[in-house]
Amino acid sequence: MRRTHIILFRGLFVAALLAVAYLAVMPPDYPVASYFNDKVNHIIAFFLLAMLADFSFPRSRFGWRKIWPLVLFGLFIEIIQHFLQFRVFSMLDVLAGLFGLFLYACSPPLLRHLPFIQMRWQ
User: Fold this and answer.
1) Cβ-count burial of 94 within 10 angstroms (0-12 exposed, 13-18 middle, 19+ buried)?
2) 92 touches 100 (CB < 8 A)
3) Which of 49, 67, 102, 112 has the smallest number of Cβ neighbours within 10 A?
4) Is 87 helix (H, G, I), strand (E, B) or coil?
5) Start-to-end Cα distance in the chain
6) Calpha distance 90→29 (Å, rounded)
7) CA distances to 40, 59, 91, 101, 111 from 64, in Å
C-alpha cells in the first residue's frame, strides 16, 4: 500500500476515534429509536474502527495488537458514560463492540474482492 494511502487511513482513523468519543459523551439529541438499533450502531462503529486500524498499519496482520486498544477504547467510553447523568454503562454495548471487531476479523476473505479496498492485502 502506498504511503499516501496509509497517511490517509491514519487520518481517517483518528477522525473516527474522535467522532465516536464525541458522540459517546454528548447528550443524545433524540431518543434512540430502539434498543436493537443502538447495538447495531455499536457493531458498525467498531467494525469501521477495526477496518481503519487495520488499514492504518498494513504491515501487520489484524490481531491482538490492533484489537486490544479498540477493546480498551470501548471500555473507556463505557466507564466515562457511567459518570455522565445522561448516559449509562452498558456491558451489552461493550459486547456489541466486540462483535463488530469479530465481524471485521472474519471479513478479509470477502473484502479482498472489493476493488476500492483490495490494496490492503496486496
Assistant:
1) middle
2) no
3) 112
4) coil
5) 7
6) 19
7) 23, 14, 21, 11, 20
How is residue 49 written as a grid cell?
474502527
Distances from the Cα of 53 to the Cα of 80, 90, 95, 111, angstroms: 22, 24, 19, 15
> Residue-wise pLDDT tens for the chain (122 aa)?
889 999 999 999 999 999 999 989 988 766 555 555 889 999 999 999 999 999 999 999 999 999 999 999 999 999 999 999 988 899 999 999 999 999 999 999 899 888 878 888 77
For residue 22 the three cell numbers come to: 464525541
- pTM, rounded to two decimals: 0.90
Range 24-34 burial, b when 16+ CB lie within 10 A, else e:
beeeeeeeeee
DSSP-based three-state secondary structure for 84 = coil
What is the DSSP code (8-state) at residue 33? S
Nearest to 88 by CA among 78, 100, 103: 78
User: Can you tell me which residue has the cell 496486496?
Assistant: 122
Cell (9 digits) for 54: 487495520
